Amino acid sequence: MHPVKLQIPFHNCLPLWGALLFAGLIGSFSDSALLAQQEDDSQLRQVDQINKYIRQTWDDYELKPSVEATENEWCRRVYLDIIGRIPTVEELKEFSADKSKDKKQKLVETLLYDDVYTEEFVRNWTTLWTNLLIGRTGGMDDNSMVNRAGMQKFLRDSFARNKPYDKMAYELVTATGKTAPGENEFNGAVNFLIDKVNEENASLATAATSRIFLGLQVQCTQCHNHPFNDWKQQKYWEMNAFFRQVRAFPGGMRGSNAAAELADQDFNGESGNIDEADLFFELRNGLIKVAYPVFVDGSEIDRSGYVNVVNRRKVLADKIVESPYFSKAAVNRVWAHFLGYGFTNPVDDLGPHNIPTHPELLDYLSQEFRSSSFDVRKLISWIALSEPYSLSSRRTKTNQSDDPLLGEPPKFSHFYLRQMRAEELYESLMVATQAAESRGNYEQQETLKSNWLRQFSQAFGTDEGDETTTFNGTIPQVLMMFNGDLIKRATSAKGGLIDGLVKNTKMDDKDRVDYLFMAGLGRKPNREEANLAKQLYQARSGDMREALTDLWWVVLNSNEFIFNH
Amino acid sequence: MRFRTPSGMSRRHFMHHMAGASALTGSALAMGHSITTHANELSRKRKSAILLWMGGGPSTIDIWDLKPGASTGGPFKPIATNGNMQICEHMPMMAKNMDKMSVVRSMSTREADHSRGRYYMHTGYVPNPNVTHPSYGSVIAHELAAQRPELEIPPFVSVGGGSEGPGFLGMAWAPFSVNASGQVRNLDMGITPDRLTQRMQALKLLETGFISEDRGISAKEHAKVLDKTLNLMTSQQMAAFKVAQEPDEVKERYGENNFGRGCLMARRLVEVGVPFVEVNLGGWDNHQNIFTTLENQRLPTIDQAMSALLEDLEQRGLLQDTAVIWMGEFGRTPRINGNTGRDHWARSWSVAVGGGGLNGGLAIGQTNEDGTRVEGTSYTSEDLMATVCASLGISLETTFTSRSGRPMKIANSGKLIKELVS
Fold it and tell me: Of A16, A397, B233, B357, which is most buried by a Cβ count within 10 Å?
C-alpha cells in the first residue's frame, strides 16, 4: 500500500498563463499552504476544499445534507466506481472489521494502488475510456478499421502504469502506427482516430478530439454558426485544419485481419501552396472562406503543410494539454463518474454558454489535477473521499428538491441513485456468483463480455456512429435480469454460489440467507425479508437449495441491487 | 405474507393479478371471450401511428422535392404519381401510392446536428439541459394506451433502432426496442407459474422496501417496468412480433431486408392495437457518393417497404386509422459537395405523411428553384407533431406537467398543417 503524500503544488506552467490567472493561482497557493498546516495528516487538503465549496452551495440554497451513507453502502459505491464491481462478502467484512479512523482512505488507496486490485482497476477504466474513445460498438462493424483489442491494450498499459493524463491524451491525439497488437509498428492509440480521419475531411476527428479532451462541442459549427454558442464556423474549420496531415490506410480487404495504419502525410493545401496550406469552407450565405490551423484560444501556428516543418497534430496536442479546458473536462468527467452528474449538463459541454454549477470548485480541482502532474488516481481519491460522495441516497424533506431529474442543477446534498452500467452488472455478477475463476484469460474474458454486451447496443444509422443502449432500465434489461443466461447461471442450484453455501456445513440456513443479502445488497435482511426466506423454503417443500435459488433471483432483480445507491 | 395460488385461476389471469392490472376480473374463459368481442368493436376506432425514421438525415431534395435542371438538382429525374405531385424516378412503387401520402415540402428547422435534430424531430422541443422531453411514441402511447386496457404488450415499440426516450413521462413509457426479426430475447423463465408468482411477490417486498426509503424517482420507475415486463412475458399478443409467420409472398412484397420486415411487423403490431410503432432505417448520412447509394440501396428499400405497408394497411381497412410519418432528423444541402455528397441541411426540406384520416396526394408548400429556401409558409417539427396528434384524436389542449411542475403543451403548441386536416 502506498501512502498518499501531501503535495504542495508547484506551478511550473505559470509563464504560459495570463496575468489574471497568475493572481488567482497565487491566491489558491497561499490558501492551500495555510490549510496544509491546519489539517491533520489523515485528511487530504483537496478533500477539505471540495467539502468547503460544496457546503457553500448548501448554505446558499438552504439545503441540509442527508446523513452519511452506511459504511457498507459507501463501500459498495467505491468498489463499483473505482474497480467496476460490487464488493464480495469477505471484502465487506474486512472493511467492517477495520476500526481505524482513516479506514475509508485506506480502502480507497487499496483499490487504487494494491496489486490485488490492479487488474480490476485497469479493466474498469479501460472499459470507460474505450467506450468514450470509440463507443461501445467501435470496431465491431465489418467496415471499421478499429481494432478494439488494440485500443484496450493501449489504455490498459496507460492505466496500469498510471501514465499522467496529459501524456495519455498527447499520445492519443498524435498517434501513428498500426492498430492491431502483434504487428510491427503496433500503436494501440491509433485506434482512437483511425475511423475518424478519412471521410469528410476528418470532421469526426475534429469533433471527438474537441469534445473528449476540451469539453467543447464543435460539430454543429461545421455547417453554421451556433445559435447559442460563441463558437463560430470559422473556429471549427481552424480546428479542423489540424487534422489535414493524417490519413488512415486500411490493412486489407474487408473482413481480413490485416491491421490498418494511421500515418502523417504532407498536406498540400486546397489551393496547392504547401507553404501556406489552406482549406476552404462555405458559409450558409454561399460565401467561401479560407482557414488555417488556429487553436481555440486564438493562437496561430506555422501554416506549412510539410509534416517535417510543422506536425499539426503534435502542435495541437501540446496546446490541448496546456489549455484550461483540458483539465476541466477531465475533472468534470471523473466527478460525474462518481457523483452521477457533472458540473455541467451535458458533461462534455464546457462551452461559454453552459455555466457550470460549481465554477470555483471546478477551477480549483482542475488546477490541483494539473499540479499533480495529471495523476488520475489522485483525482479519484480526492473525489471518492469527499463529503458529497459519502452521503446517503436517502433524501430528507429539506433536500428532496435537490434532484437533477426535476431539472434542478445538482447541489450534491444527497447521493443520486443511478443504475449500474451493463459492464458493472456483468463484473458484479461474475464476482458475486463466484463464476470469475472459470473465465479464461483476459482476452477471452473480454470477448465473452462484449458478446454479452452486444445485445444492448443500438446504432442510430448516422455516419458519426452514435449509439444508444437498451440497458437503460427498460423492458429488455428486465427480461435479461429475469431470464437471461447470465442470471440463470448465477442462480443455478448446481455448482457455483448456491451449491457452495448449501455444502458449507459451518453455515446454518440463517447464515446462508444473510450471505445472499450481503453478497447482493451489502446488508443483512430485515425481519420481514428473513421471514420471506422461510416462506420460500416452505414453498419449495423444504428444499433449501431451491429456496436459496429463488431468493438469490429476487435479490439480483431488486432495485436495490441494480442501483448504485 | 403467504404464498397461495388461488384454485381455478389460469396462469394468464394470475400474472395479471400479480402485475396489478385490476381491470381484469372474472374467470379466464369469460375474459378471453370478452377480449375478442371487445377487440372487434374497437378495431375500427382504434388509432395508431407508424413512424418510418430515416436515421442520418435523408436527402429529400433527391426524393420528394426534385430540382431538375438546377445546379443543385443532382442526376435523378422526377416521375408522375397518382397524387398531385412528382417524386423521384427511383420510387416507382411509391408513385402508385402517393394518393395515400402527402409531402410537406416546406419543413424548415434549425437543428443540423444528428443528436439535436433527432431529439427535436422526435419531441418538438430543442434539447434543454434541465428537462428531457418525451418523444412522439411516448406521448402518443401515453395518450392512447389508457383507452385500450386489453393491450398487454408495450404501447410504444421501436424496431431496429433506438428512438428517443420517454423523458419526464417516465421509463414505463420508454420504447420497447426489438430487432426486425421479431425475436424477443429472454422471454422464458423456465419455472412453473406458481413459482414465478412467489418470486414476484418476494421481489415486490424488496422493491417496496427500497422505494419507501425515499431515494428518488428511479426506484419507483424500476418497479413499474417490472410489472410491464411480467405482463408482456405472459401475453398471447407477443405473437404480433413473429413476423416470420407471415406468408412468403407477403414477406417478399415488403422486401427481404430488416426494414421490410420492420414495416411488416409494424402492421402486425398496429393490428393488435399498439398505438405507436417506429421503424428505423439508417444509412442516410450521405456525405459522399450520395447518388449511387440512394439509387442502389436506400431508395429501392424504402420504395418497396413503404408502398407495401401503405397497400397492406389500406387492404386491411387500417389506413384510415393509422397515421404514417416518414422523416429523418433533417434534409441535406442542396449544394453537392466535393465528394459527390450532400451535408446536413435543416433550413428547407421535406417529410411525407398520410393515413390516419390525413389528406393524401398533396404537395404542401414549396421551396425555391434550387431548393435552398422555403417559399411562403414553412412548417416545423411542432406543427407536424400537432397535426399527427390531432389525426389520432388527441386534443391539442393536452398539457403535461414536467417533473419540475412546469406545464407543457402537447407538441410544444405546434399549429395544424391545415392542408392535411381540412
Answer: B233
